[in-house]
Amino acid sequence: MSARPRAAAAAFTAALLLASGTPGTAEASTAPAHRTTTSRVHITGCPAGCTVTAWRSTIPTGASSEGALDTASVRHGRAVLHVPTSVTRYLFFLVADRADHQAGEGLVGVALRYDGTRVGQVVSAPQAARAAAGYDCWAGTTLSDVTFRFRAQLFPSVVNGFRRDSLRVWSVRVVRTAGPSATTFHGALPKQDAAC
Predict the structure, then answer these.
(1) Within a 10 A sphere around the Cβ of 35, how many other Cβ atoms?
(2) Which pLDDT belongs to residue 67?
(3) Which of 61, 75, 90, 160 has a CA that sits 20 to 30 A from residue 22's CA?
(4) How many Å apart are CA 141 and CA 118, to the nearest integer?
(5) In angstroms, rounded to a whole number, what is the distance separating the alpha carbons of residues 156 and 167?
(6) Contact at 8 Å (CB) between 146 and 37?
(7) What's the rounded Cα separation, in Å, for the pair 67 and 31?
(8) How many C-beta neighbours within 10 Å does residue 116 have?
């Protein structure tokens, strides 16, 4: 990875960490019967040293905190994250690996839905690669236990004149999302800020 993308990634992470508050300071919502949602992530194709992080974006809601809620290493294609149920709306996922692959010029956000797809639809690798726009912010849940099935795929790319492998990650089965769509980089969703 060149110095410029690495610096951008470091700046993004630092900015989010500085902005992080107590995850429990959520906006007012109807309180579910439980306080924590266990998110079971099944992910195929993730490079060595893969981790999944659940990030909370509060920009659309105007709440007072944002940041990393939980991070888990992927072992045997699985990771388990625990997040406050009340803040699952506008939550997004970041994927990182030992080689610091990126999605174009941003960190790797998981595409939960692409334009033109419907909730429950299965998305193939060719469909993901062709997608021009997608959504990374989850509509949230009141359930105590949910399962996501993600697929990760390295692909050759040219960024700022340099050839390198980029990483796209998407939900194999489309889930309900919140917030506007974002332009993809060959199906990958670059994250350069915490906005939904």
Answers:
(1) 11
(2) 81
(3) 75
(4) 18
(5) 9
(6) yes
(7) 21
(8) 12
pLDDT digits 0-9 by tens, 91-130:
999 999 988 888 777 789 999 999 999 999 999 999 999 9
105 found inside a domain: yes
Residue 110 · residue 136 · CB < 8 Å: yes
- Tokens in use for 107? 């960190």
Residue 152's DSSP bridge partners are 169
What span, in angstroms and rounded, lies between the C-alpha atoms of 169 and 13? 19
Return the half-sphere exposure (C-beta side, CA atoms, 13 A cut-off) of residue 48.
Answer: 2
Please report whether residue 178 resides in a domain: yes
Does residue 196 belong to any structural domain of this protein? no
Q: Which pLDDT score, from 0 to 100, does residue 108 have?
A: 92
Specify whether the CB–CB gap between 80 and 39 falls below 8 A.
Answer: yes
Fill in the DSSP letter of residue 76.
T
In this prediction, residue 161 carries a pLDDT of: 84
The answer to whether residue 7 scores a pLDDT higher than 80 is no
- The Cα-based distances of 95 to 54, 111, 161 in angstroms read 9, 11, 24
Pairing type for strands 36-44 and 145-159 reads parallel
Report the alpha-carbon distance of residue 58 to residue 185 in Å, rounded: 24
Which of the pair, 34 or 121, is modelled with greater confidence? 121
Question: Which residues constitute the domain of residue 50?
Answer: 3-19+33-191
Return the higher-pLDDT residue of 47 and 17.
47
Looking at residue 34, what is its pLDDT? 62
Task: Say if 26 falls within a structural domain.
Answer: no
